[in-house]
Amino acid sequence: MDRKLRLAALVAVLAVAGCDRQPVDQPAVAATPPAPTSAYAFTFDYMHARQDVGDPGKVRAAAEGAFYVVVHYAIQNTGSAPVPVPDMIPLVLRDGQGRTYSADPDATALLLTEANIEVDPVRTGDLNPGVSHKTAAVFEIDRTAWQFRPWHVQPIGLPNASVELPALDLP
Question: Which fold does the domain 5-164 belong to in CATH?
Fold first, then answer.
């Protein structure tokens, strides 16, 4: 069984203009109410490392010398009007040297199926006020790069909205 590091419902409130950086071990608290429109709240449910993803018969292993970092999160529209589908704001991982790592779309698709996270219809339209969308992202990371700490997860285009990854037990 994979070890899962459960984070205490960490919420990073993100307005389109960005937000202050919050450490992983403390819940993020918005200093001011979110903007009335175009606001997202990202809740990072948990992050963990593993060697492969997928259901039996359709498993994808990380490349030799690499492993997967899995980030489970939810996105909520905290504004007062519909906003574009937040999946259009993908996450990236950033290492301590400033290098960025994109999610692996094939591994992410396998993980979403394995975890029984539905690809719901809201992904093709606007996200209405108060509506949340749960999803996950899978990143393949070379073991030698893991030493370049601290690692952060951040939405693309919002550099001040990064959240530091906790220490993960590697597979």
Answer: Immunoglobulin-like (2.60.40)
